């Protein structure tokens, strides 16, 4: 996140008690529990009164903005404001006498702690889906409202089907009833837009638009709506700061098969420089011009492509209502953006080496200070940010740092708050999942550290997670293989012990864009083929409720595999992340020779690439932390 420069102490001797940084303070509210008790009860009651006034039986509140962004502006945090749940994925349904919050496996523990169990039932977001609850709890003649700007057309269709099964009606509202009772709702963001130069982007806008127009032709469409701000940012080589952690300029664009595209963005975000940059390749109009522009094109009967994942149901309704043909499918830009060019690859390699220096200094600090019992989870977050800021290149953290020790580490997407902040004590495991946004690349790394002597169970589980991590890192697979075909490699050793983890093994990562980028991923649901140039995380884990959490995460670049005599193109992974893996948690007897060789080679590479950039004390720590392990 952009922040004013601030003087820092030399971090080789960072004090145990750290001052809160401006960056940490700016986003600490995203860690905090929202208002609870009376305030939340009053909000739910006010919403029900508003629904009654509109003659609605209920209303659906997704954790979403108009573009389905992972991180949303404060003005879009309707779900957190109403329920108290602050996770990045969820949905609520409020009926006259019942209300339910739906979350996935990552947030089950968090949701139970944050919402009022007397007011809200906590249900599954995946299996069964919310639509099952809706159809079971609605009655014939009921009217369930939804905001068509906050749901994709596929989500709206599922809700409509659920209402039909119950004999009820799904009603698209003209204005959101939550907004009507949220009297102190923040204003929409107006962060300045910056040009993302070709020295970082690698390819200019003209070449990207030529690629996109070729894809529009393949779709049989006349135009494509860029409903994803990531796609707009990538296409026109711009970045912004409208949401936390991802350098997004919230915006839309319309790219015709023939002719000049149009960008819809609030002009107050644009300097003369950025306006001139955009106008070289597109017309620039205000956001409220999008609807009439789309309607004018649709009136000609045009086929207009929309992205299944990010296009609001309202866009589909608008196009169809004006006589056009909505062409629903995958946004072709998502795949173009996911395959990094040579400049982006070089940039991310540089960013990871820079980040590795900060990580080494941080891990050495934790190893030195945590056994005293004086550090807390918040201290760890602040220290890591300090080391990254000392690089002089940090733009933002790429997501709120997960700093969990003891039982907090078992909460997959834990966010430390002043209330939950736990002291790091001997005998604990400390799980740190963090990332950085640099102009030349985005990082994401998780390390689990032993504080004091780990138990045998901790070492067993850690080693099983490590073996799965190594299996992904060493994988060689035919070109066209998808993430679902690789996912089992990461889980096999955990499965052998009768345990598993409730999240994907890996997600795509952007180039100074989203740390969670589609369409490729390594998971049971990962159907997109992995292509050379894609960057994905490799992060198996294990979580013992009320005990401890373990996760080991590196980022991997898909590259060509060099196999003599191969009868088809084969791919492999090149590890980008450079940080020690805690040797104290490894049961060497459980590793095969090949696994041990991989670990020792990885640590040797960390020493060689990171060591020369470190101060003498930290380099000595790194040499010890990456020393060769023997069978």
TrEMBL record:
Keyword list, A-Z: Aminopeptidase, Hydrolase, Metal-binding, Protease
Gene Ontology terms for molecular function: metal ion binding; metalloaminopeptidase activity
Lineage of producing organism: Bacteria, Pseudomonadati, Pseudomonadota, Alphaproteobacteria, Hyphomicrobiales
InterPro entries in alphabetical order: Creatin/AminoP/Spt16_N (IPR029149), Creatinase/aminopeptidase-like (IPR036005), Creatinase_N (IPR000587), Pept_M24 (IPR000994), Pept_M24B (IPR033740), Peptidase_M24_C (IPR032416), X-Pro_aminopeptidase_P (IPR050422)
Species this protein is from: Bradyrhizobium diazoefficiens (strain JCM 10833 / BCRC 13528 / IAM 13628 / NBRC 14792 / USDA 110)
Pfam family, one: Creatinase_N
Gene Ontology cellular component terms for the protein in this record: cytoplasm
SUPFAM superfamilies: Creatinase/aminopeptidase, Creatinase/prolidase N-terminal domain
Segments traversing the membrane: none
Lineage: superkingdom: Bacteria
Family: Belongs to the peptidase M24B family.
Domain Creatinase N-terminal: 43-174
Residues of the Peptidase M24 C-terminal domain: 570-629
CDD domains the UniProt entry points to: APP
Listed name of the protein: Aminopeptidase P
Segments forming domain Peptidase M24: 349-558
């Amino acid at each position: 996140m952009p922040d004013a420069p601030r003087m820092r102490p030399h971090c080789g001797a960072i004090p145990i008690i750290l001052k809160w940084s401006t960056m940490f303070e700016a986003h600490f509210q995203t860690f905090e529990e929202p208002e609870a008790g009376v305030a939340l009860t009053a909000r739910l009651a006010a919403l029900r009164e508003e629904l009654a006034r509109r003659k609605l039986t209920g209303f659906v509140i997704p954790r979403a903005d108009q573009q389905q962004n992972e991180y949303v502006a404060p003005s879009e945090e309707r779900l957190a404001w109403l329920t108290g749940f602050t996770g990045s994925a969820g949905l609520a349904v409020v009926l006259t006498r019942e209300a339910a919050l739906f979350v996935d496996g990552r947030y089950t523990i968090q949701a139970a702690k944050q919402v009022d169990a007397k007011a809200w039932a906590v249900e599954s977001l995946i299996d069964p889906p919310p639509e099952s609850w809706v159809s079971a709890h609605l009655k014939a003649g009921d009217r369930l409202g939804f905001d068509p700007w906050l749901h994709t057309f596929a989500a709206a269709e599922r809700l409509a089907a659920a209402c039909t099964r119950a004999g009820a009606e799904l009603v698209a509202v003209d204005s959101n009833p939550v907004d009507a009772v949220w009297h102190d709702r923040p204003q929409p963001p107006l962060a300045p837009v910056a040009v993302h130069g070709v020295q970082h982007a690698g390819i200019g806008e003209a070449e990207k638009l030529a690629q996109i127009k070729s894809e529009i032709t393949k779709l049989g469409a006349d135009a494509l709506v860029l409903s994803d701000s990531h796609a707009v940012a990538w296409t026109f080589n711009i970045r912004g700061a409208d949401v936390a952690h991802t350098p997004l300029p919230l915006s839309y664009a319309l790219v015709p098969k023939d002719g000049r595209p149009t960008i819809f963005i609030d002009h107050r975000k644009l300097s003369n420089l950025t306006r001139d940059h955009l106008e070289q390749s597109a017309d620039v109009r205000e956001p409220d011009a999008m609807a009439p522009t789309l309607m004018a094109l649709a009136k000609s009967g045009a086929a207009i492509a929309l992205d299944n994942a990010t296009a609001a149901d309202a866009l589909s309704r608008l196009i169809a209502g004006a006589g056009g043909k909505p062409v629903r499918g995958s946004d072709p830009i998502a795949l173009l953006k996911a395959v990094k060019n040579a400049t982006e690859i070089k940039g991310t390699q540089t960013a990871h080496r820079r980040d590795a220096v900060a990580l080494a200094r941080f891990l050495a600090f934790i190893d030195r200070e945590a056994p005293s019992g004086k550090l807390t989870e918040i201290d760890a977050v602040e220290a890591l940010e300090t080391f990254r800021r000392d690089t002089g290149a940090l733009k933002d953290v790429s997501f709120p740092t997960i700093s969990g020790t003891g039982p907090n580490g078992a909460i997959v997407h834990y966010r430390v708050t002043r209330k939950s902040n736990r002291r790091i004590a001997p005998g604990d495991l400390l799980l740190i999942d963090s990332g950085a946004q640099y102009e030349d690349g985005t990082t994401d790394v998780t390390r689990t550290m032993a504080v004091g002597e780990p138990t045998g169970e901790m070492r067993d589980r850690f080693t099983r997670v490590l073996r799965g991590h190594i299996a992904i890192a060493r994988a060689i697979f035919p070109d066209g293989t998808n993430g679902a075909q690789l996912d089992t490699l990461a889980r096999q050793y955990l499965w052998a012990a009768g345990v598993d983890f409730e999240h994907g093994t890996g997600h795509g990562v952007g180039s100074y864009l989203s740390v969670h980028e589609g369409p490729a991923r390594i998971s049971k649901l990962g159907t997109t083929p992995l292509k050379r140039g894609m960057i994905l995380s490799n992060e198996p884990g294990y979580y013992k409720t009320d005990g401890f959490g373990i996760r080991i995460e590196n980022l991997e670049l898909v590259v060509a595999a060099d196999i003599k005599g191969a009868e088809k193109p084969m791919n492999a992974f090149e590890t980008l992340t450079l940080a020690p893996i805690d040797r104290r948690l490894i049961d060497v007897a459980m590793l095969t020779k090949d696994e041990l060789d991989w670990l020792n080679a990885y640590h040797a590479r960390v020493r060689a690439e990171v060591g020369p950039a470190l101060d003498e004390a930290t380099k000595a720590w790194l040499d010890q932390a990456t020393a060769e392990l023997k069978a």
